[in-house]
Write a structure and sequence with these properties.
The protein contains five helices and two strands. Strands 1-2 form a two-stranded parallel ribbon. The longest helix has 18 residues.
Length: 142
C-alpha cells in the first residue's frame, strides 16, 4: 500500500488506479470493515489525525478530482461523506523520497511521463497536505 504524499497529477494511469484502490482499502481499514492492513505504516498519519475518516475522505476526493479531470470514471459514491478535514503535514524529506521512488517507477513503465516530470525540482503535495521541513517520516519504511 502506498498512499502518496505527492499530488496525484504526477501519477501515470496505473499509479492513479492503484492509488484509488489502495486508498479505498485504507478507508475500509479505518472504518473497521476489513481485518487486513490494520497495522500498515502508511495509515499511521491518518490514524494520528483528529478526524481520520474525514481526512481519508478529503484524500480520496482529491484523487477522484484528478481522475475525473483525466476522463476516468471512478465511483465517487465509494467515498465516505466527511466534514472538511484539518490539513495534514508531510516533511520535505518524505516528499523527496517519494519523488525519487515515483520517478524510478515512471522511468520503467511510462518513459514519456518520466520525461515530462524529470526536471521538476519541487513537486506539489497532495492537496490535503502541506510540506514542512524535516527528514523522512517515521511511518515510511524504505
Amino acid at each position: 500500500m502506498r498512499l502518496w504524499s505527492l499530488h496525484p497529477r504526477y501519477l501515470d494511469p496505473q499509479g492513479i488506479v492503484a492509488l484509488w484502490r489502495e486508498t479505498l482499502l485504507a478507508q475500509a481499514v479505518l472504518r473497521e470493515q476489513t481485518r487486513g492492513y490494520r497495522n500498515h505504516p502508511q495509515l499511521d498519519r491518518f490514524k494520528a489525525h483528529p478526524a481520520p475518516l474525514d481526512a481519508m475522505s478529503a484524500y480520496l476526493q482529491a484523487i477522484h478530482a484528478e481522475a475525473t479531470a483525466r476522463g476516468y470514471h471512478f465511483d465517487a459514491s465509494k467515498i465516505r461523506p466527511g466534514a472538511p478535514a484539518v490539513p495534514m503535514t508531510v516533511t520535505a524529506g518524505q516528499m523527496a523520497y517519494e519523488w525519487t521512488h515515483l520517478m524510478a517507477k515512471l522511468q520503467a513503465r511510462n518513459p514519456a511521463l518520466h520525461e515530462r516530470w524529470r526536471t521538476t525540482t519541487a513537486p506539489e503535495a497532495h492537496p490535503l497536505l502541506s510540506v514542512r521541513p524535516g527528514d523522512l517520516e517515521p511511518w515510511e519504511r524504505p
